[in-house]
Amino acid sequence: MNLTNKKELAKKALGIGKRRIIFTKAGSTEINEAITKNDIRDLVKEGIILIRPVSGRRKVEKRKRKRGPGKIKMTSKRRKQGYVKITRKLRAYVKSLKDSSKITKELYYELRKKIKTRAFKSQAQLKNYLMEIEKIKLDNTNDGKKKVKEKKKWK
Protein backbone atom coordinates (compact mmCIF):
# COMPACT_ATOMS: atom_id res chain seq x y z
CA MET A 1 0.00 0.00 0.00
CA ASN A 2 1.29 3.39 -0.96
CA LEU A 3 0.22 5.99 1.60
CA THR A 4 2.19 9.02 0.35
CA ASN A 5 -0.99 10.78 -0.81
CA LYS A 6 -2.58 10.12 2.59
CA LYS A 7 0.47 11.62 4.32
CA GLU A 8 0.13 14.69 2.10
CA LEU A 9 -3.55 14.96 3.04
CA ALA A 10 -2.73 14.56 6.74
CA LYS A 11 -0.05 17.22 6.42
CA LYS A 12 -2.58 19.69 5.04
CA ALA A 13 -5.30 18.71 7.51
CA LEU A 14 -3.14 18.94 10.64
CA GLY A 15 -0.86 21.78 9.56
CA ILE A 16 2.39 19.92 10.31
CA GLY A 17 5.25 18.43 8.31
CA LYS A 18 5.21 14.98 6.72
CA ARG A 19 8.08 13.78 8.92
CA ARG A 20 5.98 14.18 12.05
CA ILE A 21 3.11 11.99 10.82
CA ILE A 22 3.26 8.30 11.79
CA PHE A 23 0.77 5.73 10.48
CA THR A 24 0.22 2.66 12.66
CA LYS A 25 0.37 -0.69 10.85
CA ALA A 26 -2.79 -1.92 12.56
CA GLY A 27 -4.94 0.84 11.06
CA SER A 28 -3.55 0.85 7.52
CA THR A 29 -6.90 -0.20 6.00
CA GLU A 30 -8.78 2.59 7.79
CA ILE A 31 -6.12 5.10 6.69
CA ASN A 32 -6.48 3.90 3.10
CA GLU A 33 -10.25 4.46 3.29
CA ALA A 34 -9.89 8.04 4.62
CA ILE A 35 -10.76 10.52 1.90
CA THR A 36 -11.37 13.88 3.58
CA LYS A 37 -9.44 16.03 6.04
CA ASN A 38 -12.15 15.37 8.60
CA ASP A 39 -11.54 11.61 8.28
CA ILE A 40 -7.84 12.20 8.98
CA ARG A 41 -8.66 14.30 12.09
CA ASP A 42 -10.93 11.51 13.38
CA LEU A 43 -8.14 8.95 12.89
CA VAL A 44 -5.78 11.18 14.91
CA LYS A 45 -8.35 11.30 17.74
CA GLU A 46 -8.68 7.49 17.64
CA GLY A 47 -4.89 7.08 17.81
CA ILE A 48 -4.42 5.38 14.45
CA ILE A 49 -2.41 8.33 13.11
CA LEU A 50 0.24 9.55 15.56
CA ILE A 51 2.01 12.90 15.61
CA ARG A 52 5.70 12.87 16.46
CA PRO A 53 6.84 15.70 18.79
CA VAL A 54 8.94 18.53 17.41
CA SER A 55 12.63 17.63 17.32
CA GLY A 56 15.53 20.01 17.72
CA ARG A 57 15.66 23.41 19.39
CA ARG A 58 12.45 25.23 19.97
CA LYS A 59 11.84 28.74 18.74
CA VAL A 60 11.32 30.09 22.26
CA GLU A 61 14.72 28.81 23.35
CA LYS A 62 16.29 30.32 20.23
CA ARG A 63 14.74 33.68 20.99
CA LYS A 64 16.19 33.65 24.50
CA ARG A 65 19.74 32.95 23.37
CA LYS A 66 19.83 35.24 20.37
CA ARG A 67 23.36 36.54 19.96
CA GLY A 68 24.29 37.30 16.38
CA PRO A 69 26.91 39.65 14.97
CA GLY A 70 24.54 42.62 15.16
CA LYS A 71 24.00 42.14 18.89
CA ILE A 72 27.74 41.92 19.49
CA LYS A 73 28.35 45.09 17.47
CA MET A 74 25.72 46.98 19.47
CA THR A 75 27.19 46.04 22.83
CA SER A 76 30.71 46.94 21.74
CA LYS A 77 29.47 50.27 20.37
CA ARG A 78 27.73 51.04 23.68
CA ARG A 79 30.88 50.20 25.59
CA LYS A 80 32.96 52.40 23.30
CA GLN A 81 30.52 55.30 23.59
CA GLY A 82 30.78 55.17 27.38
CA TYR A 83 34.57 55.11 27.16
CA VAL A 84 34.60 58.08 24.78
CA LYS A 85 32.30 60.17 27.00
CA ILE A 86 34.31 59.58 30.16
CA THR A 87 37.65 60.02 28.40
CA ARG A 88 36.67 63.33 26.81
CA LYS A 89 35.33 64.65 30.10
CA LEU A 90 38.46 63.68 32.05
CA ARG A 91 40.85 64.98 29.37
CA ALA A 92 39.08 68.34 29.33
CA TYR A 93 39.25 68.52 33.13
CA VAL A 94 42.98 67.67 33.22
CA LYS A 95 43.65 70.20 30.44
CA SER A 96 41.87 72.91 32.41
CA LEU A 97 44.00 72.07 35.44
CA LYS A 98 47.15 72.31 33.32
CA ASP A 99 46.06 75.60 31.76
CA SER A 100 45.39 77.11 35.19
CA SER A 101 48.84 75.78 36.24
CA LYS A 102 47.49 73.67 39.09
CA ILE A 103 49.41 70.63 37.84
CA THR A 104 52.78 70.23 36.18
CA LYS A 105 53.38 69.18 32.59
CA GLU A 106 54.81 65.82 33.71
CA LEU A 107 51.79 65.05 35.90
CA TYR A 108 49.51 66.10 33.02
CA TYR A 109 51.02 63.50 30.69
CA GLU A 110 50.97 60.88 33.44
CA LEU A 111 47.27 61.52 34.01
CA ARG A 112 46.58 61.37 30.26
CA LYS A 113 48.13 57.89 30.15
CA LYS A 114 46.03 56.76 33.12
CA ILE A 115 42.87 58.14 31.54
CA LYS A 116 43.67 56.22 28.34
CA THR A 117 43.98 52.95 30.27
CA ARG A 118 40.67 53.62 32.07
CA ALA A 119 42.23 53.97 35.50
CA PHE A 120 39.49 56.44 36.47
CA LYS A 121 35.82 55.65 36.13
CA SER A 122 34.65 59.18 36.88
CA GLN A 123 35.77 62.73 37.46
CA ALA A 124 35.23 62.31 41.20
CA GLN A 125 37.65 59.38 41.21
CA LEU A 126 40.25 61.47 39.40
CA LYS A 127 39.81 64.27 41.97
CA ASN A 128 40.26 61.77 44.81
CA TYR A 129 43.43 60.48 43.18
CA LEU A 130 44.81 64.02 42.89
CA MET A 131 43.95 64.68 46.54
CA GLU A 132 45.72 61.48 47.60
CA ILE A 133 48.96 62.32 45.84
CA GLU A 134 48.63 65.83 47.27
CA LYS A 135 49.83 67.50 44.12
CA ILE A 136 46.88 69.82 43.95
CA LYS A 137 44.41 71.49 46.27
CA LEU A 138 41.01 71.61 44.66
CA ASP A 139 38.27 73.98 45.63
CA ASN A 140 34.89 72.30 45.69
CA THR A 141 33.18 75.71 45.53
CA ASN A 142 34.16 76.19 41.87
CA ASP A 143 32.38 73.08 40.64
CA GLY A 144 29.33 75.04 39.54
CA LYS A 145 27.20 71.93 39.70
CA LYS A 146 25.64 72.38 43.13
CA LYS A 147 23.00 75.05 43.05
CA VAL A 148 21.09 76.11 46.09
CA LYS A 149 17.42 76.39 45.43
CA GLU A 150 15.50 78.98 47.31
CA LYS A 151 12.31 77.83 48.88
CA LYS A 152 9.26 79.80 47.96
CA LYS A 153 7.18 81.00 50.84
CA TRP A 154 3.47 80.71 50.29
CA LYS A 155 1.26 83.24 51.97
Explain what this protein looks like in three dimensions:
The longest helix is centred in the middle third of the chain and has 31 residues, at 69-99. The chain is 56% helix and 4% strand. It has helices at residues 4-14, 28-33, 37-46, 59-64, 69-99, 105-116, 123-133; strands at 21-23, 49-51. It is mainly α. The chain folds into two domains: 4-51, 50s Ribosomal Protein L19e, Chain O, domain 1 (Orthogonal Bundle); 72-139, no CATH class.
What descriptors fit this protein?
155 residues, mainly alpha, 50s Ribosomal Protein L19e, Chain O, domain 1, two-stranded antiparallel sheet, 7 helices, 2 strands, rod-shaped
Summarize the structure.
With 155 residues, the chain is mostly helical. 56% of the residues lie in helices and 4% in strands.
Tell the overall outline.
rod-shaped
Number of domains: 2
The biggest beta sheet, please? 2 strands, antiparallel
Taking pLDDT < 50 over at least 5 consecutive residues as the criterion, the unreliable ranges are 141-150
Task: Report how far the terminal alpha carbons are from each other.
Answer: 98 Å
Strand content: under 5%
Query: What is the number of E strands?
Result: 2
What does the secondary structure layout of this molecule look like, with pairings?
Blueprint: H1 4-14, E1 21-23, H2 28-33, H3 37-46, E2 49-51, H4 59-64, H5 69-99, H6 105-116, H7 123-133
Antiparallel strand pairs: 1-2
